[in-house]
Amino acid sequence: MSLIDISRSVSPATAVWPGDQEVEWAWTRRLEQDGASVNLGSIRLSTHTGTHVDAPYHVHDDGKKTEDLPLGAFIGTAQVVDVGSASSVRPEHAQRFAGPAAPRVLFRTSASTLSSDEWPGSVAPISPETVRFLSEAGTVLVGTDAPSVDPLDSTGLPAHHALLEAEIVHLEGLSLANVPAGQYELIALPLKIPGSDASPVRAVLRKAPAQ
Predict the structure, then answer these.
(1) Which domains, and CATH codes, for the chain?
(2) Would the pTM count as exceeding 0.90?
(3) 195: which DSSP letter?
(4) Which residues contact 44 (CB under 8 A, 6 or more apart)?
(5) Among residues 115, 125, 174, 152, which one has the least CA distance to residue 18?
(6) Does the pLDDT value for residue 6 go beyond 90?
(7) Beta partners for residue 199, in sequence order
(8) How many CB atoms lie within 10 A of CB 57?
(9) Is 170 a residue of the active site?
């Protein structure tokens, strides 16, 4: 089975939202240095580190938390759509692909040129109109390689709220630089963190079998 890793690395060098918890990694026990019976590490990080899923609770106190999200949405057929250098993700970017044949849509934008250690100056947000189009097409999951589906300076977060209203789960911070546009199978399960607003995921693609 050939899998394509579309997750960003998590380390103390990983770029995080300005002001958010940075990644802290430490060894608490070491075989050689401490004479311990095991190597044992600890990690502290934001739930929005690297490649992650946002739960509706992130933007609404009555929204679903991470453990309430439908796991089936994170596994199955997905279409990678390359929007190039577009300043935003618009309905026309998805019109050829969205629908029952690809209920998950992942957008590759200019953010894919950045490494895990780089924070973008701006991103290509997903327009609320695109979210509504995808909802009508039966989309259950939307993903982006950007750290947010909204502009980085947005406080109204229109795409987040449109996705919440449409009951579409979404992934942020994907790594799609070396992934050609096309149809794949996605696996990107969140951690089971009760009460959480988000969760890191290990996202992979498998090329869809030829029809």
Answers:
(1) 3-207 (3.50.30.50)
(2) yes
(3) T
(4) 21, 23, 24
(5) 152
(6) yes
(7) 53
(8) 18
(9) no
